Amino acid sequence: MPERNLEFGKYGAQGVKGHEAVARQLDSLAGYIASPITTMRGLNARLTYLTRTAHARAAAATLGFTPSKAQLRDWRDGSVTPRRATLEKIEQAYHAMRRENVARYLLARLNREGRGTRVEIHPLNQSQVPQPRQREVGMRHMNVRSWDRIVTAWAAGAEQELDDAWVEQVIDLGSQWGQYEYVTNVGFAA
Fold first, then answer.
1. 7-11, 48-52, 186-190 — which one is most confidently predicted on average?
2. Alpha helix (H) ranges present in 38-177?
3. Short-list 105, 95, 96, 113, CA closest to 190
4. Closest of 184, 174, 172, 179 to residue 142, by C-alpha
């Protein structure tokens, strides 16, 4: 069975780790606020999400977002613009909280009561690899029945755990699983 790639891209291949593509797809399914945080609308929407209820404020506090009532009021009415570091902290807290809130819903949709979800794995881009070194790698389909470890690691933001959970699923491709460690895209719907 192939091992993990040690020198990916040595001959010009391009792609991302499979778990990064899965995280990107899960992020798109999470449905984040479309307006950027640098606009008043985007900032207010994120602040409302983080401070709407006592439960949301407590969860935001555990993520390190603890503004005073005066700061929130000034940010919302536009009299004070948060610093760049503060905007990044707000964005990180929002993404972490949104992932945590959506994870249970996504898990149920992806597992589909044990039937799982069909996944398309698009191979890495070999257009820059010299012809004699290119290999035949086609798009693959597989059915992932257990999303528990993947979604839990994604919600927690644990990249290494997400990588391990994804590789555990990709091994089902058989002896060719190493060819799909790096991909251009992983597609699925929930």
1. 48-52
2. 40-51, 54-62, 69-77, 84-111, 148-156, 159-170
3. 105
4. 172
Least confident of 5-9, 41-45, 166-170: 5-9
Residue 119 is encoded by which pair of tokens?
Answer: 């996944």
CB 178, CB 111: distance < 8 Å: no
The pTM is what?
A: 0.85
Give CA–CA dist 136/138, Å, rounded. 6
Cα dihedral 36/40/43/48 (nearest 10): -130
The DSSP 8-state label assigned to residue 2 in this structure reads: -
In whole angstroms, what is the distance from residue 127 CA to residue 30 CA? 32
Interatomic CA distance for residues 74 and 96, integer angstroms:
24
Quick one: which of 180, 169, 165, 185 has its CA closest to 8?
Answer: 180
How far from the centroid of its chain's Cα atoms is residue 19's Cα? 8
Tokens 């039937």 identify what position? Answer: 115
Residue 155: is its pLDDT beyond 90? Answer: yes
> Which tokens in the block code for residue 71?
């700061």
CA distance 155 to 132: 42
C-beta of residue 187 within 8 angstroms of C-beta of residue 25: yes
Q: Which residues pair with 187 in a beta bridge?
A: 120
Torsion angle, alpha carbons of 168, 172, 177, 182, to 10: -60
